[in-house]
Amino acid sequence: MKEELLMRFDEAYSGNVFIKSHPTYEDAQAVIYGMPMDWTVSYRPGSRFGPQRIREVSIGLEEYSPYLDRELDEVKYFDAGDIPLPFGNAQRSLDEIEKYIQTLLADNKIPVGMGGEHLVSWPVMKAVAAKYNDLAIIHFDAHTDLRVEYEGEPLSHSTPIRKIAEHIGPKNVYSFGIRSGMKEEFEWAKENGMHISKFEVLEPLKEVLPTLAGRNVYVTIDIDVLDPAHAPGTGTVDCGGITAKELLASIHAIAGSDVNVVGFDLVEVAPIYDSSEMTANTASKLLREMILGWVK
Amino acid sequence: MKEELLMRFDEAYSGNVFIKSHPTYEDAQAVIYGMPMDWTVSYRPGSRFGPQRIREVSIGLEEYSPYLDRELDEVKYFDAGDIPLPFGNAQRSLDEIEKYIQTLLADNKIPVGMGGEHLVSWPVMKAVAAKYNDLAIIHFDAHTDLRVEYEGEPLSHSTPIRKIAEHIGPKNVYSFGIRSGMKEEFEWAKENGMHISKFEVLEPLKEVLPTLAGRNVYVTIDIDVLDPAHAPGTGTVDCGGITAKELLASIHAIAGSDVNVVGFDLVEVAPIYDSSEMTANTASKLLREMILGWVK
Amino acid sequence: MKEELLMRFDEAYSGNVFIKSHPTYEDAQAVIYGMPMDWTVSYRPGSRFGPQRIREVSIGLEEYSPYLDRELDEVKYFDAGDIPLPFGNAQRSLDEIEKYIQTLLADNKIPVGMGGEHLVSWPVMKAVAAKYNDLAIIHFDAHTDLRVEYEGEPLSHSTPIRKIAEHIGPKNVYSFGIRSGMKEEFEWAKENGMHISKFEVLEPLKEVLPTLAGRNVYVTIDIDVLDPAHAPGTGTVDCGGITAKELLASIHAIAGSDVNVVGFDLVEVAPIYDSSEMTANTASKLLREMILGWVK
Amino acid sequence: MKEELLMRFDEAYSGNVFIKSHPTYEDAQAVIYGMPMDWTVSYRPGSRFGPQRIREVSIGLEEYSPYLDRELDEVKYFDAGDIPLPFGNAQRSLDEIEKYIQTLLADNKIPVGMGGEHLVSWPVMKAVAAKYNDLAIIHFDAHTDLRVEYEGEPLSHSTPIRKIAEHIGPKNVYSFGIRSGMKEEFEWAKENGMHISKFEVLEPLKEVLPTLAGRNVYVTIDIDVLDPAHAPGTGTVDCGGITAKELLASIHAIAGSDVNVVGFDLVEVAPIYDSSEMTANTASKLLREMILGWVK
Amino acid sequence: MKEELLMRFDEAYSGNVFIKSHPTYEDAQAVIYGMPMDWTVSYRPGSRFGPQRIREVSIGLEEYSPYLDRELDEVKYFDAGDIPLPFGNAQRSLDEIEKYIQTLLADNKIPVGMGGEHLVSWPVMKAVAAKYNDLAIIHFDAHTDLRVEYEGEPLSHSTPIRKIAEHIGPKNVYSFGIRSGMKEEFEWAKENGMHISKFEVLEPLKEVLPTLAGRNVYVTIDIDVLDPAHAPGTGTVDCGGITAKELLASIHAIAGSDVNVVGFDLVEVAPIYDSSEMTANTASKLLREMILGWVK
Amino acid sequence: MKEELLMRFDEAYSGNVFIKSHPTYEDAQAVIYGMPMDWTVSYRPGSRFGPQRIREVSIGLEEYSPYLDRELDEVKYFDAGDIPLPFGNAQRSLDEIEKYIQTLLADNKIPVGMGGEHLVSWPVMKAVAAKYNDLAIIHFDAHTDLRVEYEGEPLSHSTPIRKIAEHIGPKNVYSFGIRSGMKEEFEWAKENGMHISKFEVLEPLKEVLPTLAGRNVYVTIDIDVLDPAHAPGTGTVDCGGITAKELLASIHAIAGSDVNVVGFDLVEVAPIYDSSEMTANTASKLLREMILGWVK
Predict the structure, then answer these.
(1) Is D9 an 8 Å CB contact of chain A?
(2) How far is C103 from chain F (nearest CA, A)?
(3) Which of residues D163 and F83 earns the better pLDDT score?
């Protein structure tokens, strides 16, 4: 009798995870996790609630992608919930994330992260870089995120790309869609051979992808690469961005290329500004396409 | 004295109907009606309140279309209010709608429907097909709506296009903008010769229209063919859709073609998600253009 | 066939009027009308959309009042829609309203108004005072509305009670719940023998009602007499007001007294600030109780 | 290494359940479950999303109740997630719920339900009544919920109290706070000896409780017993209700009485109308107090 | 005269200021001012609160434009706050604005206005035309704004472009993006040699700009030239507009041309409809680009 | 030192000001300042935007209090804008606030603070305690705020009352309206002779005030002492609070007592949750009453 009930419990739990996530960790190819941190944000906080809301609305998704002609059943991904992070303590939070990812990588899982503010990508990328020494970063964002510090604070949501660029070499970092940053950031990128495509994403991406053929790549997407019309639910909206259609096409371009995606994340969804739940719904569809296109 | 007051009452009633609607049924070319039903919706309900809100915001419309160089005064359409539907009973609601449309058609009125969920289009299309035996369907939507049933329920908002396709033959149904559905639905369409344009609307429509020249056509538009950026106020948002500009151009392409539009509807506007009233305003403008372009 | 359809049209129209409103003007005891004007408002406009929204949500009302043990079927009231008002022109709008009410009164209808800003009550009260020379005004509001002018403008939403008080004599005006106004307004009221109950409504009302026994009374309710917690959807929120429960009890106190209510209104519902539709729903219930309690 | 990670997974899952819920079913005293159904609602749907949102905001709760001087650690309750319900099929949904509760009761767990629409309480109460033959129902609500059917449909959110009253005898049902219903419902209750306290809750409850001393009691709370000011996030708001403070006091009155609470639920939280997340937050606190006060 | 104006500046300084605005009036090249007027609006008012909200969100802007490779520090602009306008009195408000601008122009400041409704641009353009006798107007808008009057009122938000066109000659006025207006307005424009680009902005602008080389130009932007997806926070949303990306490109096209911008404004931002603060954020970025691109 | 502070005032003056604030610092009795900090908040951040929004809506206030029969002109208060705080750095922010208050006190100004999170009150109270050695604290709040630390962090919004209680002695601190906290916090208060009135405010306050006659008192009000119905716009809503009416009465009770108010603040207004601007409007009225009642 209890067996039957518990079986039903297992089904029931499916409401709390990303749609169609695999029931067990052991045989999963990829692991989804939330990083509910937003404590270094300068403008409008709230992205700590992003991962849970993305899971909640994922029940509205179809399981089949007509773009990729593939169904979620064809990939095994385990939704491990949110990483418990020490509230307000950025350094310890980043340490927790790094250790967590190290374990995933040791178990040969592809890490699939949901933010939280963009700084959470830094320890993930560091851990991934420790495993793959030819790693390249593909970065979609409205912002450079190349600051050394923000108002004296080296742990800031404005710094993660600078940190990874210095860690693996700026020539291995490719940013797309950038339309906001300090003059110094753009100059630093230029002087150090880092790739920045201002304003545009799909066309320059198609030019870059062949040069990365065969390499291991980590992809980090700040949802604000989208125009605010397409993603109002984020902290730092900045008009002049790309459409969701173009971002989907960019995901599919990577899927069709010869790069090897070894991890990825989608960050900065902030439900409190997402008055029609549009951004959470879009994020859940983007994740479906990334999983179907990149986890092979 | 009372005459004067009652005249004023008549004017006053104009606030409750679609802008510039004709005062009498008898000499109207077209009849607008709401179908306030949303009881088979799987994700986010609320479209039952769509028709009233579209009427309310229509007062903000100009009466002239610079696209078509035509004014609302040049068409006679009567706004008959919402069809009273038995709450929660899908079958009886559909029966009521079908009988209603049969009456309109017997009186040689062009039916102009406002949803409500998409299932309401099924009895309308069935009634129209009974009158015009060469009928073709033009369908704008994010979703295939080709399911046989949804979770065991044959009356579902996911099924209307399947029903009409089986009724008049799949080769007479043309879907545009589709970006969501089950693998089986896409396969059924392909195997049965139904036209599906994935993702795109305007270009494939321009290719299809000449092949329909001279035929009687019913057009059904699910507002979610638009990207959520353009229509947040609907139950099942799905990013990657077209812009309102492209949908307007598609309406105008039909207006400029040689098809004979014998009825049309616009469904799935759900005010509760429409935080800035954007979707209702857009729906009212789309209706103006459909009326001016299609009722000749 | 068409007869049947038109009958259905009549039913359908019921969605556009206050719930259970009587189908014909001639034999109605009371007439409901909207006064969609907000052009003299100083702080936050939007009440012009109030009457339509109150009608829309009235479909959620039960037809029976357990407070009064009476059903809407027991009263005949005709919903005449909104009075067409010349946008932006306060004087002409007020003239239109006054003529409209004169006609209603000549036909022996009880006027039941929905605002719109509070200034619309002034021409109504003036017309009512012309018919009943013993008229008293019962006024529920957060604000005195006793200004002579507002920033040089004698037609302002801050002035209607001053106007009627000067017209019928301040001793015949009874204000309740007042918690906002200029010092001069309170002083003028005191010096001229007008009744003002500051902050409180129900207790002082119970003391006043016996002194009005047998008199003809017009009741004007500004929804902002309620605390913002109970009526966020209004232009000028002012905390410290009464609860909806107390306002209901006050309506019932009048119903149980010996005054003769010859007209009434409910004004200043502004849907754009009414994020959960609470205020419109509350207004529709208040109107039900006023109709059931006061139209005998 | 993996052990450590999995332990962290367990912690992480705590973000998806009601705060401080016990990790295992076997030794839990009570079981929390969601019933995400809203398909028979007549006015404004959306309560199907209530249970998940209540869990989400429960992280903002303190674990200690200064009202009861008790901490959540002192009670063992297991959050089993949402019961998977067949969308749109009311009868099968109710059957699923009934079987689910039967299992819980067979395992001697106290059922703690979160709605969903009020109809979900019917199969729960039926299952509980099968176990406890002296069962009494305490019911807090704005609405009688005593209809035999709604527009011809016997499975409606307006009927659950009628069903249980007929099942266990109207004399065993005690309703409080009722301020809305059809005349026939109030009359049926009166004629059949059912207890209805109109408008008020705490005072009549205090009178009733001693008469129930020693009996097994199921408590069902429709959140709309609260005034809309205190619970805007529900489908059918109805002004004139009680405050959250009074509802808390009522919960504490039951806790301090001699009744034996054998199950309870809180229903009709609808996040889409809950613009400031007030209702979900309030619901989570009410649940904390019910658990601390009633699970002994 | 200037004393009086400067005194008003001090008062006005009670508004918060646009990011990085210069601390002193005397040595500023440009002066930013708000025109918080919305009293002639026919549809949805609220733009009076626009200027303050644009300033508030401007703190989220980067100070550097990667489009123009220029920083805000390179331009001296003084934010003078909102012009105090006599509420509800359109004529006196316009007179106040005209005098204000005359003083600015006498001091050789470039006027940078924030609306408020579009009618506020009329006295500004008149004052600018008095100084530059070769003045041309570049106008971005969804609406023609060419009415002679609106419902009998010559001071209406539908009239400013007609007024300036008659004042400086229709051949000197260039409108772009127009998609709404009366038939008569389009005809008047055509008959009088005024330039109207229907629907499109960037391409026709690029054709027009060379013909204006060397001329003094005033640019007036109604935010509703953007599609509602990009600017929901405005009174009269009208779908089918351009993207923020295209508007940015249009601003940059003017910056790169040989016209001499002698003043400009951005009007019709209405925060109450701007549920995610998207429109205010976009307006503040547009202003940054206009200042950096046009104040040389 | 004052030069530096005044320079900061000039900078700060970039904020709009509270209605009727005095134009000069020198002869002001009281100084209003914002403390836009929310970086130690555990649940929902956003109060950093509170002070500006309170100023913005204060234009809707009447200048006269019918409660106190006093006008704002009778008090001289200078609005110095927001204190510039180093983002994300709690310790430096608190140091800045403390120095700022020390300067105000040296100039014999009464400090009137607007938060921001509650932690900002700690350095203010410390500075005030340094001046008045008989200082008592009156504290209105839903939460004890008596933690020693929060998740290892001694600078947390849960700690300010503990800090001041340890600084001036727990017996000098009087908390009212408390309904949330850890068991340890309530115990610590009891063991150390600190006054805590659970749940209630006005009645216990009236008992306490006579015992404080003649003493210097600082009053700190967390807006969440109000029920969420009355103040949805705050981070940590907690139902069961008092009404705005009771809080007004409590302010007036202090005004009518023999205590000497030497400083006060109102904290935790968070506009992003304040969907109808109710909380900001209420906060601005509360401040008016505090200024009129307490600055003599």
Answers:
(1) yes
(2) 37
(3) D163
